[in-house]
Amino acid sequence: MRVAISGAGVAGPAFAYWMGRTGHDVTLIECAPSFRAGGYVIDFWGLGYRIAEKMGIEAPIRAKGYEVESLRVVGADGRTRARLQVAGIRRATDGRYTSLPRGDLAATIFHTVENDIETIYSDSIVGIEERHDGVGLTFASASPRDFDLLIGADGLHSAVRQLTFGPDSMCTRYLGCQVAACVVDGYRPREELVYATYNLPGRQIGRFALNDDRTLFLFIFHAEEPDVPVGLDACKARLHNEFADAGWESPQILAALDEVDDLYFDLVSQVRLDRWSTERVALIGDAAACVSLLAGEGTGLALVEAYVLAGEMHRAPDDLRRAFDGYEARLRRFIEEKQNRASKFISFFAARTRPGIWLRNLGLQAMNIPLVGDLALNRALRDDIELPDYAI
Ligand SMILES: Cc1cc2nc3c(=O)[nH]c(=O)nc-3n(C[C@H](O)[C@H](O)[C@H](O)COP(=O)(O)OP(=O)(O)OC[C@H]3O[C@@H](n4cnc5c(N)ncnc54)[C@H](O)[C@@H]3O)c2cc1C
Fold first, then answer.
1. Exposure string (b/e) for 136-146, b if CB count within 10 Å is 16 or more?
2. Which is the closest atom of ligand 1 to the Cα of 106?
3. C-beta 6 within 6 A of ligand 1
């Protein structure tokens, strides 16, 4: 089949990999001008990690990963209020756990296919005409083309989803928080392999020291309205507004923020759809069922969805409907459960009251207690699903 995939993030290249294994021709369409490595740091673990092992990319992922030692919660004076040792998480995940920039994970997957597929940058699908025997695509720049199948792997604000299932307002559920992330050079202080985080009611700043003397900052704050500012300056101004009087290192962090020209800023939302496919279009990754950063597993789940969709297509080579139904039947409840759990986790990220922050810190600290912590982490991190071996 001629398969068009919109989005060269995590899910898109992963699906391209499995399509290549099963003998299909892939065209990947990415709106960015080139492949974007780096970016915010994600924790990578769970079932998705096992899929990465199947793909033979565990070693390069580990090579790019940071073996984080602890999460340190600080007070306004910078002193430790609570600490979670990551060793417990490693035990709960059999050591299948690392942290790396999202774009580096995506690039590692992309390198497995880049020489075997067509990749179009700086373009986007603007029209989809589904027919019984194929799908006609029109692009912002390129000439129209026909494919047998279209996969939307273009993230939380997927263009394919909007063109096929309706606007974001119909498909996404805002969780009441906004998130921003940026990377700066030369910030001090540095704490190697420690994620330092500072909370005020409804607000959190995190910092993590990256290689090459860079530092990642993550801002999360409660906001009633889902109104993301437009443009870099407006986003910076918003963060200044939210964090100007926050305490801890916020003055120097905001000064460092002023120097960046690349800032991620978005709503914390989930994608909730009744179906992930139509006749010739299927969604994977955040486009289908974004769990949000609160789940800490969106990349792994994107890999799972890519694998299962490709596997179901392999099992029903002449029957896309059956393959799509198989894909959804196998994963829908599992993913919805992840989404439900993630929604409840909001009080961990952006506790709204001081007692809430205090309780959260207590809970974090308790995770270090042998047995108690292991039990809780095993429960929180387990994936309640068995995937078939599709032999692809
Ligand atoms: C701050 C933050 C922290 C997170 N932390 C974690 C974590 O710890 N662990 C974890 O597993 N997950 C985490 N996540 C979630 C994770 O990043 C996503 O779930 C994951 O990246 C989803 O992969 P994807 O391929 O579906 O989408 P993406 O990785 O978002 O990729 C989508 C791709 O599509 C492209 N695109 C967008 N629109 C178009 C278009 N119109 N045409 C063509 N291309 C387009 C984009 O440029 C991008 O390359 C976090 C998310 C955020 C925001």
1. ebebeeeeebe
2. 29
3. yes
What's residue 115's pLDDT? 97
Q: What percent of the chain has pLDDT over 70?
A: 100
Local structure of 210: helix, strand or coil: strand
DSSP string, 224-276: SS--PPSSHHHHHHHHHHHHTT--TTHHHHHHHHTT-S--EEEEEEEE--S-S
Could you tell me the distance, in angstroms and rounded to a whole number, from the CA of residue 168 to the centre of ligand 1? 16
* Ligand 1 centroid – CA 301 distance (Å): 11
Question: Using CA positions, which residue lies closest to atom 29 of ligand 1?
Answer: 9
Query: How many angstroms does the Cα of residue 215 sit away from the middle of ligand 1?
Result: 20
Tokens of 80: 């430790």
Ligand 1 centroid to residue 37 C-alpha, Å? 12
pLDDT digit string (tens) for 295-340? 999 999 999 999 999 999 999 999 999 999 999 999 999 999 999 9
Average pLDDT, the chain: 96
List the residue whose alpha carbon is closest to atom 35 of ligand 1: 7
Tell whether the model's pLDDT for residue 349 goes beyond 80: no
What pLDDT is stored for residue 372 in this prediction?
87
Structure tokens belonging to residue 298: 């969106």
> So what's the pLDDT on residue 185?
97
40 lines ligand 1 (CB under 6 A): yes
User: How far from 257 is each of 78, 232, 293, 368, CA to CA, in Å?
Assistant: 19, 11, 21, 33
Cβ of 304 closer than 6 Å to ligand 1, yes or no, is no
Say what the pTM is: 0.97
Residue 105 near residue 53 (C-beta atoms within 8 A): no
Distances in whole angstroms, Cα of residue 328 to Cα of each of 130, 276, 331: 20, 7, 5
Amino acid present at 70: S
**Encoding tokens for residue 106?**
């995506």
188 has pLDDT over 80: yes
Q: Is the CB of 206 under 6 A from ligand 1?
A: no
Radius of gyration of the chain (CA): 21
